[in-house]
Amino acid sequence: MTAQRDLLQTPIEFLKGVGPKRAEVFQKEFDIRTFGDLLHYYPYRHVDKSHVHHVTDIVEEGGYIQLRGRITGAQVLGEQRAKRLVANFADETGSLELVWFNGIKWVQELLQKKQEFIIFGKPTLFNGRWNMTHPEMIDPDAQSGSPVPTGFMPLYNTSDFAKRKTLDSKAVAKLTANLVPIVRNVIPETLPDDLVKRLNLLSLNEALCNIHYPEDSQKLSRAVLRLKFDELFFLQLKMLLLKQINTQRIPGHRFDTVGHYFNTFYKEHLHFELTNAQKRVIREIRADMGSGRQMNRLLQGDVGSGKTIVALFSMLIAKDNNFQSCLMAPTEILATQHFEKISRQLAPLGMRVEFLSGSTKTAKRRQILEGLQSGDVDILVGTHALIEDNVVFQNLGLAVIDEQHRFGVEQRAKLWRKNIMPPHVLVMTATPIPRTLAMTLYGDLDISVIDELPQGRKPIITKHLYEKDRLKLFGFMQREIDKGRQVFMVYPLIQESEKTDLLDLMAGYEAVTRSFPPPRYGIGVVHGKMKAEDKDFEMQRFAKNQSQILLSTTVIEVGIDIPNATVMVIENAERFGLSQLHQLRGRVGRGGSQSYCILMSKYELSSEGRKRLNAMVSTNDGFEIANFDLQLRGPGDIQGTQQSGMLDLHVADLAKDEKLVAYTRNLAMEVLEKDPLLEKAENRRLREKVAEMAHGEVDWSVIS
Ligand code: ADP
Ligand code: MG
To answer: Are 306 and 456 in contact (CB under 8 A)?
Structure first.
């Protein structure tokens, strides 16, 4: 067993054909350090060389194909750079043209010696005729030098840099061809034998060999299935186990009183009626925090559904039980807004609310930290700055995280350590996550959903306009402003070139000031490069309706709540992702007046871009948008999941493998039902694998 592990741990440098230079490229570009790492570097697809086809089999978008036939003539055409060798290739069903731009001489010599070939390449249609450039030419009578003379050829993703260093797909294929025979039969199994048997799965060993060099197409699909199975099954097993540990073993502060603060605020200071969904969720949270177990709850609700007030009531319950709370938001603007709103709302109750961010001045920071330690501060609102180690509470009972998708599991774990007994954790997200994704991503959390908007909200009207409609747009903005309303105009941020982004924003600013001349109109600008206090100043001006139009980059994307703003104009809307567009649209339609979202785009759009904008025009429902997004882009791209490393899926696809997600989840629950902490001998492999995956995410001492 250990000898086998050791083999997979062998540094990649020692694989035949690698050496120190390529090893460095592997490590730098793909994080491949060992034999095992390369084994898990799966091809993105295979070309089927297992069949020899006929010319008449060629279809459009058919991809690579292998043919057998004769060369029936060849000539050199063109001069200098346009010089090429064109040959006619025919089998009994038809013919096509083969073209070479390089190595002409070598091919000419080859064709003189021989006329019959097996050729391999990707046909394209050119001037009504099939043609193949630089085909691979295989002598049907000789053994080919390629690792699989017939069969499936793996194709690997590599990078430009790696290619320059000679590590292209073909080179990687040669290396995996060297690797597979060495590791065959020594790859340790991760599933219990009887499970593999019962589900008729390939062994991990067979799967990993066949994913690179499949024996046949059936083996390939079974290999893919086994690897997808492992990814989904273990991810969910880990999540469910974490959840189990949290609920069974980790006690929580028992908040059994709902008293003065909660009741006073509810009776005297709440200016609207809570929606039924809000009431239900508050009850769920109350029950959870009163149970004596630690709460780990995700609160999902579309933009504008009123999550903040739910957080506020939760924090009031903490206060009623003599505990402190904190509320963490992903951007300074959003954190500031929360702080202002909450301190205003709680001022009549005499509670102390403070704000902490990276830009809090030293003297003020010291004062706050003292207040936290003495227990004088009831609620701390802020950014990431809250999770720094020097922020110490006297008695933190509840941590709320707004717009969770910006935070990873690790940051959540950091909050836990803020008290001897971990605080209750409430994470809130407006990114509507489709069910399958939520089940997997947040499998360790309980989920509450606000599925109802506050009364009297009118659905936002979304329109898609082109540049030629700009006058119409300005006219429309004018009418809204005359009614006393305000307008957001958002410009995309392209990370590669922040300068051009600002230029876009500045050009927009000039155009807008020409049509809406100050001082009659107040026009504000906010972008990521501004100092926090300048941003804050502009936001305040807009919040107080001293400016009517706010131009910004996407810094206002999440959370901002200015009910008097009724128009959201998104410039170059085709450059935004769907969930981002939906988030931005959610900045309006928060008061009682009819609101509008105007998507500006150029006329020519990619088909995907057009689909996104059409989706926005056709629905206001965040869940529909999210499902659409998942279909369009795949879950790896869903905002935040990638950066925060929450998903580690290589072959499985949460959108397409929905059934397998559900199946593996049920199976994981079944296993844990019989053996809650994976202590039985038959589950030893499962436990080892999960422990390896969860490394660093949880204190495993609690289950060992
Ligand atoms: P989100 O869920 O997007 O974070 P917010 O909590 O910012 O939404 O709430 C959006 C707006 O709706 C805020 O102005 C808030 O005060 C208001 N609001 C919340 N709940 C209700 C309600 N039940 N009735 C009326 N307005 C509400
Ligand atoms: Mg919010």
So the answer is: no
Mention every residue, 6+ apart, whose C-beta is less than 8 A from residue 431. 403, 405, 579, 583, 622, 626, 638, 639, 640
> 189-455+663-704 sits in which CATH class?
alpha beta
Ligand 1 atom 9: residue of nearest CA: 306
CA 262 vs CA 50, 315, 347, 355, 386: distances in Å: 71, 9, 14, 22, 25
Nearest-ligand number for the alpha carbon of 329: 2
CATH 3.40.50.1100 corresponds to the domain 461-619: no
Nearest CA residue ID for atom 4, ligand 1 = 307
Residues with beta carbon < 5 A to ion ligand 2? 559
**Cα–Cα distances in angstroms (integers) from residue 376 to residues 42, 324, 381, in the given order:** 56, 9, 14
Ligand 1 atom closest to residue 341's alpha carbon, by position in its atom list: 16
**Pocket lining for ligand 1, CB < 6 angstroms:** 272-275, 278, 301, 303-309, 430, 454, 559, 561, 563, 590
Query: What pLDDT score was predicted for residue 322?
Result: 96
For residue 561, the CA-to-ligand 1 centroid distance in Å is 8
Task: Give residue 621 CA to ligand 2 midpoint distance, Å.
Answer: 16
Interval between CA 402 and ligand 2 midpoint (Å): 7
Q: In the 8-state DSSP scheme, what is residue 268?
A: I
Domain ranges, ordered by start, for the chain = 1-50+152-188, 52-150, 189-455+663-704, 461-619
| Residues 52-150, CATH architecture | Beta Barrel (2.40)
Residue 541, Cβ neighbours under 10 Å: how many?
16
How far is residue 615 from each of residues 587, 628, 640, measured CA to CA in Å? 18, 8, 21
Q: Read off the pLDDT band of 659 (50, 70, 90).
A: confident
Model-wide pTM > 0.70: no
For residue range 49-99, what is the model confidence (pLDDT) as tens digits? 778 889 998 887 777 888 999 999 999 998 888 889 999 999 999 999 999
Are domains 52-150 and 461-619 of this chain identical in fold?
Answer: no
Task: Give the HSE-up count for residue 257: Cα atoms under 13 Å, Cβ half-sphere.
Answer: 11
Query: Beta-carbon neighbour count of residue 444 at 10 Å?
Result: 22
